[in-house]
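Lab manual, section 2.4: Encoding a predicted structure.

Procedure: take the sequence of the chain (108 residues), apply the prediction step described in section 2.3, and record the output as C-alpha cells. A sample record is shown.
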Amino acid sequence: MAMTDLLSAEDIKKAVGAFSAAESFNYKKFFEMVGLKKKSPEDVKKVFHILDKDQSGFIEEEELKFVLKGFTPEGRDLSDKETKALLAAGDKDGDGKIGADVADLAWQ
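Recorded output:
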C-alpha cells in the first residue's frame, strides 16, 4: 500500500514543502496538513504501518528521522532535535519507540 492510497498526493506535497527548512518540523501541523486528523483510526494505523519500515510493530527513533520520506521520497531527513521531539510526543511509556495504538492518539 502506498501513502497516496490513504492521503492526497497534493496534501502530502504541500505539507512536506511547508516543513522543508531545517528545524521547522511541527508534527501536529504536518499531520493535520496531510489529512491524518480527518482519518479513521484504521487509516491512521495503515499510515503507521507504512512508516514502520522494519515491520516491527513499532516506529523507532531511527525510522522517525526519515518520517517525511515515508510520505514522499522528496522529503528531507528530520534533525536529531526534531526526531527526539516527535519521539517524545508519541513514546508514552518511555521505551524509545512508538506503537500503533499510541500513534493513533498522538497523530490525530
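Check your result against the sample. The two ends are 21 Å apart (CA to CA).
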